[in-house]
Amino acid sequence: MLVSRLLSQPLWVWERTIRYPQTIIKALLYLTLIRSHIQKGYSRPRNFFA
Fold first, then answer.
1. Cα–Cα distances in angstroms (integers) from residue 48 to residues 5, 19, 33, 36, 38, in the given order
2. What angle do CA 22, 24, 29 make, to 5 degrees?
3. Is the Cβ–Cβ distance between 30 and 22 less than 8 Å?
4. What angle do CA 38, 36, 40 make, to 5 degrees?
5. Which residues of 13-26 are buried (b: 16+ CB within 10 A; e: fewer)?
6. In contact, 34 and 48? CB cutoff 8 Å
7. One digit per residue, pLDDT tens: the chain, 50 residues?
8. Where does the source fall among the domains of life (predicted)?
9. What is the residue-wise DSSP string for 1-50?
10. CB-hemisphere CA count at 13 Å for 7?
């Protein structure tokens, strides 16, 4: 079964699967911060994405 295969995975696989969503959440937070900065006018989008 798939469950037994998942349970038999080594620790580094679990660590990677746990860390991966955290990096996605951090990236989304950074993107929202950057977007709010651009909307407030601190930096121009052209200069930022150039």
1. 45, 28, 13, 13, 9
2. 95
3. no
4. 55
5. eeeeeeeeeeeeee
6. yes
7. 577 776 677 777 777 777 777 888 888 899 898 888 777 765 555 655 54
8. Eukaryota
9. -HHHHHHTS-HHHHHHHHHHHHHHHHHHHHHHHHHHHHHHTSS-HHHHH-
10. 4
In angstroms, what CA-CA distances link 14 with 3, 21, 26, 29? Answer: 14, 12, 19, 23
Identify the residue whose tokens are 């989304």.
Answer: 28
Which two structure tokens, joined as six digits, stand for 40?
């407030």
Residue 37's contacts (CB-CB under 8 Å, 6 or more residues apart) are: 43
